[in-house]
Amino acid sequence: MMELAKRRGFIWPSFEIYGGVAGFYDFGPLGALLKNKIIQKWREYYVIKEGFFEIDSPNVMPEEVLKASGHVNHFVDAMVECQKCGAAFRVVDLSREQTGKDIEGMPKEEMNQFVKKHRVRCPNCSGELGKIFDFNAMFRTAIGPGSQRVGYLRPETAQGIFIDFKRLQRHARGKLPFGVVQIGKGYRNEISPRQGIIRLREFTMAEAEVFFDPDDSHHPKFSELAGEQLRLWLAGDQQHGKEKLTEVMAGEAVKQKLVCNELMAYYLALTKRFLLDLGIPGEAIRFREQTPGQRAHYSSETWDAEVSTERFGWVEVAGLAYRTDYDLSRHAQFSKEDLTIFSAGKNKKVICHVVEPSYGIDRPLYCMLEHSYVSEKKRKYLRLKKEFAPIEVGVFPLLNRDRMPEKAREVHEALRAGGLMAEYDDSGSIGRRYARADEIGTPYCVTIDHQTLEDDTVTIRNRDDTSQVRVGISGLANTIIDLIRGCS
Ligand SMILES: [Zn+2]
Description:
Elements: H1 2-7, E1 11-13, E2 25-27, H2 29-49, E3 53-55, E4 60-62, H3 63-68, H4 71-74, E5 76-81, E6 88-90, H5 91-99, H6 108-117, E7 133-136, E8 140-143, E9 149-153, H7 158-162, H8 165-171, E10 178-187, E11 202-212, H9 222-225, E12 229-233, H10 235-239, E13 246-249, H11 250-255, H12 262-277, E14 285-289, E15 301-309, E16 313-324, H13 326-335, E17 341-343, E18 348-350, E19 353-360, H14 362-372, E20 373-375, E21 380-382, E22 393-397, H15 404-417, E23 422-424, H16 430-439, E24 444-448, H17 450-455, E25 457-462, E26 468-472, H18 476-485
Parallel strand pairs: 3-10, 12-14, 22-23, 22-24
Antiparallel strand pairs: 1-2, 4-9, 5-6, 5-7, 8-9, 10-11, 11-19, 12-13, 14-15, 15-16, 16-19, 17-18, 20-21, 24-25, 25-26
Zinc ion binds at residues 82, 84-85, 87, 122, 124-125, 127.
């Protein structure tokens, strides 16, 4: 699948002609189209249906913001260096690779003992490892010349939302709950990323911050999702080494206090719906509750939405964190601004609490590609959901003569004018052209043949079952748009 993704222009390593740099990937022409479709789907969920406000704030942040948010002190990875060759590693990764055990969240002293006891060594030269220390994973820079002012590339988009809270609550007319989203790049200076597209140093994220009165965590549309089945891997079961998943409806999960509140349960269910919508099968989705040691410094309860993959095992694609009033309280304290909101019900000011659904975009894209890849005896194809296919329709002249290419180009132009991402292809046999379209998940192919020249009809071939129907050229763009939407 990765070979296909590189060859056909979905994703490829960045800076390739200079030898590449780990942790950076380019989205090629098809990957960029697919990525934009995922982002658009996310907007449909959070901006249109949830009615959240979208903002767009800078990637570079001054140090004071990230001191207040806790990232300067806490956005760290446990790191270790080989004493022989000097190579640097993330301790948790090395331990997992060499012992199969997950030591994420373990106190540093215990980690040192663990490394000694299990004889974790440098994978490059088998050298002994030094003492474990914290490495701050933010990219540091200077704002303006002379480097008087320290800046960082943002580790999350969320902080841009918190620091605009005063303006945002006015925009929401002081009504709770309200949500604000941001879609953009986030940065994490990984120590030694070795998992390709899964561990990136620069990634695209889509985050929503839901502000609510801590005494009222009700979601107005909860009844719509209360019956959604969730597969939960509870922290307690993980700590006892149990792989068992608890299957429970979102509403029940709140009643049984497995999930902290209704808002959290609602967004867990919504996340599941979103992943299903991307074409990830339900049995490949689970929610893992982070153990106290694994949680970020700002969170009192976090659920990771994970997708099962062949290549990387379970992959975290979204994190849902109960950030309490941590961020707003800290920014109020550090900026000396009033970041409270007036609660009409209580007739007094309150500091909002926050539930945050935070999604990666790159990882779900990888998961979609892997889950849609079908390799059958006779053919290989991407069974992407039709609405996500980067190229929506292929246009082929059956033969390169008898005015067929000219007619096919006319049809191609008409489809593009009708708003479809159409691709013209006249090289090689018609079978080869179908195979190339299948390989990138193009759901429909239109072929111009002898009969077209006589009666202005074409064939439309369906990617999934290779069946063909003959239809008139007039209104062809709308016919295909209806097919993609599944309403014809
Ligand atoms: Zn070494």
